[in-house]
């Protein structure tokens, strides 16, 4: 059997239709979208068409509320730093959670060094914040709440609509990193009550290096990148027209095929987890059992290290991960699982299976041919292993 890819929360293969849509913009339609001649006007037309497609995926009121960036990380930086700088006269307090992606956490840590005060909300054993704690943490100088919509490691969904209501009642800007949810299941910026939402193309079978920040009309934001007047002075730099066109097409397809593909991926996810819990003892599901992404299963295998499982699966042509691709070089336990207070014997043994639209039942069954003997062999090598009676 060929290679099997179950790491779609890290990145996804670009759909053939998206590649086909992008190709002319590397050759025939290569104009700069800011140029006034026909080449530029042609590029601008397609750029604005893609902006409408991205806006449509998340139900933005206007395409003008979409600001193209180089990806989700830049969108997070622009949202958090841009708000902090724009509202510095109002206050210097930011609220986030302890389980955010490092694009949010490290941006907040940077701002702490600039004199801002940051509150990191804890989470329960499922990885969800306490709404009462959030509300009580908001003070007169709070200017921003930044809480992700779906966790990239566990798939746990945050109650973004409730967070948005609390922030609105307190007059505080709400930003959510929706990189892992938009295009994988329904996500509506209006229902979320967010003024700022980070998006990324390569998580939904689009190209790498392109993302967007939804910026609700009237939201104050200071640009973090200076240069020309691109993106209505919100993000300087010549627009990546091929990438933007690809992003738009990926959003169009996700909106069109969403219900069918969500169901397909969820069925595979459930098939995988049911077989794991049935065939491999002493395992733990990390994250909420129901309130999670339809494609994500994060499981800890007691007594062994997740990295060892990943390497052994890789030798069998199966790609999975321990968590965020952005921290894969770190030997530290997952900050997400630590925040969820996963017990030590399970903490190091986590594996994230994140499925994509191209996976099949055969993929799942092949993984389950290989995984149980790998776990058994690694446990027998562990000096702390205690077989379940």
Provide a compact summary of the structure.
By secondary structure, the chain is of the alpha/beta class.
Model description:
There is one protein chain. This protein is α/β, with parallel strands linked by helices. It folds into two domains: 4-11 and 258-381, Alpha-Beta Complex (Aspartate Aminotransferase, domain 1); 16-253, Type I PLP-dependent aspartate aminotransferase-like (Major domain) (Aspartate Aminotransferase, domain 2). It is 41% helix and 14% strand. It is built from 13 helices and twelve strands. It has helices at residues 16-22, 38-58, 72-86, 102-112, 131-137, 160-170, 189-192, 230-233, 241-279, 306-315, 335-339, 344-347, 361-381; strands at residues 4-5, 66-69, 93-97, 117-121, 142-146, 173-177, 196-200, 211-215, 283-286, 296-301, 318-319, 350-354. The strands form three sheets. A seven-stranded mixed sheet has the order 2-8-7-6-5-3-4, sandwiched between helices. The longest helix is centred in the C-terminal third of the chain and has 39 residues, at 241-279. It is globular, with a radius of gyration of 21 Å. The two termini are 36 Å apart.
């Amino acid at each position: 059997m060929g290679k099997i890819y179950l790491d779609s929360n890290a990145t996804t293969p670009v759909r053939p239709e998206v590649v086909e849509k992008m190709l002319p913009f590397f050759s025939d339609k290569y104009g700069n979208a800011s140029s006034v001649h026909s080449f530029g006007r042609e590029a601008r037309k397609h750029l604005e068409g893609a902006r409408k497609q991205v806006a449509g995926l998340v139900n933005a009121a206007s395409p003008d509320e979409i600001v193209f960036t180089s990806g989700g990380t830049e969108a997070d930086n622009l949202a958090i730093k841009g708000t902090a700088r724009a509202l510095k006269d109002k206050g210097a307090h930011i609220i986030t959670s302890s389980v955010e992606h490092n694009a949010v956490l490290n941006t907040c840590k940077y701002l702490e060094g600039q004199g801002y005060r940051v509150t990191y909300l804890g989470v329960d054993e499922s990885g969800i914040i306490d709404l009462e704690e959030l509300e009580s943490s908001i003070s007169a100088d709070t200017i921003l709440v930044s809480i992700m919509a779906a966790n990239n490691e566990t798939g746990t969904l945050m109650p973004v609509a409730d967070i948005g209501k609390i922030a609105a009642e307190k007059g505080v800007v709400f930003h959510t990193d929706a990189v892992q949810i938009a295009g994988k299941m329904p996500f509506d910026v209006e229902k979320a009550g967010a003024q700022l939402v980070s998006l990324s193309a390569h998580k939904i079978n689009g190209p790498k290096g392109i993302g967007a920040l939804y910026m609700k009309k009237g939201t104050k934001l200071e640009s973090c990148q200076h240069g020309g007047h691109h993106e209505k002075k919100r993000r300087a730099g010549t627009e990546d027209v091929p990438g933007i066109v690809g992003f738009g097409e990926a959003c169009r397809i996700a909106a069109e095929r969403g219900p069918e593909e969500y169901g397909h991926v969820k069925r595979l996810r459930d098939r995988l987890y049911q077989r794991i819990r049935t065939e491999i003892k002493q395992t733990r599901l990390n994250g909420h059992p129901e309130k999670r992404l339809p494609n994500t299963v994060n499981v800890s295998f007691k007594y062994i290290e997740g990295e060892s499982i990943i390497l052994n699966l890789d030798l069998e042509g199966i790609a999975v991960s321990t968590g965020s691709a952005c921290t894969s070089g770190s030997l530290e336990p997952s900050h997400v699982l630590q925040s969820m207070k996963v017990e030590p014997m399970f903490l190091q043994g986590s594996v994230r299976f994140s499925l994509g639209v191209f996976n099949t039942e055969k993929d799942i069954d092949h993984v389950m041919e290989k995984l149980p003997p790998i776990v058994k062999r690694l446990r027998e090598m562990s000096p702390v292993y205690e077989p379940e009676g």
